[in-house]
Write a structure and sequence with these properties.
single chain; 24% strand; 169 residues; alpha/beta; 31% helix
Length: 169
């Protein structure tokens, strides 16, 4: 991270269950920045990624880096993986991009809200800003109970950051 000029602003809580909601997700470069950050942070972090990146030859490496494959056609596998994490660790961080794609979306996915509720976890927001090479770890987000309002609030938070391809934010 230092070599490329990226920095992290903020800090992670210790020994808590945290769902880290990160955005905007606009490019394959997001993955490279995120993996560099994960390797530079001294924390136990897991992250959700599209199942298709967990190809033969890379699967073991990505899983050892905390990767959890998401196959929307088989959500049971994801539920089982998350259950295993909650059973194994008292405190954990699971990172995910609620857009669910690198394309521009009108509505975020709701999985982070469901996972936070099912695992009794706090939700923390984070923004990736390519314009100034920062990852901003934000505050905890408390769901209001109105899912549409909550999704809009998270999306508005991400609007403060410039993705690699801002037109897709």
């Amino acid at each position: 991270m230092k070599v490329t000029g990226w920095k992290t602003i903020g800090h992670f809580p210790k020994d808590e269950r945290v769902i880290l909601v990160v955005g905007p997700h606009t490019s394959n470069w997001d993955f490279m920045v995120a993996m560099s950050a994960v390797l530079s942070w001294d924390i136990n972090i897991h992250w959700l990624g599209k199942h298709s990146i967990f190809k033969k030859g890379f699967r073991r490496i990505l899983k050892s880096l905390g990767g959890i494959p998401v196959n929307r056609a088989n959500p049971e596998d994801l539920i089982n993986e998350i259950h295993a994490i909650t059973t194994k660790y008292q405190g954990f961080i699971i990172g995910m991009a609620p857009e669910g794609t690198r394309k521009k979306v009108e509505r975020l996915k709701t999985g982070f809200l469901r996972i936070a509720m099912q695992t009794n976890s706090k939700i923390m927001v984070a923004g990736i800003d390519f314009s100034n090479k920062t990852i901003q770890l934000g505050d905890f987000f408390t769901p209001s109970g109105d899912m549409e309002k909550d999704l809009e609030s998270i999306k508005n938070y991400f609007s403060n950051f410039s993705g690699k391809r801002p037109e897709l934010s």
